[in-house]
Amino acid sequence: MQFSSFQEFIQMGGYAFNVWSVYGMFAVFLAVNLLGPLRRNKQIIRELKRRYELNAPAQSGASSANSSAESVGDSQ
Amino acid sequence: MDWTWFHKWGSPKWFYELSGKWLPWLVGSMVLCLTVGIVWALLFVPQDYQQGLTNRIFYVHVPVASISLAFFPLMAIAGTVFLVWRMKLADVVVKVAAPLGAWFTALALASGSIWGVDTWGTWWIWDGRLTSLLLQFFLLLGVVSLRTALEDSEGAARACALLSIVGCINVVVIKYSVDWWNTLHQPSTDFSIAADQANGPEIWVPLVFMILAVYLFFAISLILSTRNEILQREKRSQWVMELVKRS
């Protein structure tokens, strides 16, 4: 252990700004690139769910008629 | 020769299922390496006789900066696979790697700058290493905006693959910049056995943990974004519909 007190650890031998800002940026970097894609995954699944539900009635309704089957795949 | 593995790897469904099984192990190993690496680096590494405790920055800067050099070669290989064999999954990798690479490069530049301000006495200098790494940052932003500008078309995929291959030239410049131009940036970190004897294990073992942690993070983040992109591109396929309904 290089430090005898918590105070000393925080001060980092006078380099508190340098050391803590780099480790802070590192934490932000990790969080953004892990939590970001995880959140996006939930969002995509929610969007797709809504999209399939919107298209599902059209699909069953169109089973007898042939023309509206086009709408099943995409709405964009 | 049996090429089934190659076609399997090209199958988004197969990748999605397999990567789902890998992720918990990768995340577990990353958390372990990161915890050991950070605690060791911050609390136990001895002060540097010249730099004092700013040597803590080394343990973030070196892993991030060295892995940032892997992006263009990775994107070039994936881009080539896409151009030659039309493998869709390879283009997904080119797409999701570019923004992550920009993050890596930005952190490498910023952490180096904050390290340099006290040890070199300046935030920035136009030396070979720093300038070529800054160029890599702009090239990666270029790949990202090319994709956006061409709206995810087939043409965008081809253009990004080409730019990735060309961008590899800059990686060579970054790598050898410290040997070609003798300016402020120190030579590359030496990972050989001779270096281990000069610096005791209390210096390099935490670095190994941090490098492993950042590599795992790189893999996990790429896999997560690849999975998201696969879901969106395959939204009309049966397996995605079933997967969404089950969740």
TrEMBL record, chain A:
This is Heme exporter protein D. It is a single-pass membrane protein. Coiled coil: none annotated. One of its GO terms (biological process) is cytochrome complex assembly. The chain crosses the membrane at residues 20-38. The keyword Membrane applies. It is found in: Cell inner membrane. Required for the export of heme to the periplasm for the biogenesis of c-type cytochromes. The keyword Cell inner membrane applies. It comes from the Bacteria. Keywords: Cell inner membrane, Cell membrane, Cytochrome c-type biogenesis, Membrane, Transmembrane, Transmembrane helix, Transport. InterPro entries: Haem_export_protD_CcmD, Heme_exporter_D. One of its GO terms (cellular component) is plasma membrane. Belongs to the CcmD/CycX/HelD family. Residues 57-76 are annotated as: Disordered.
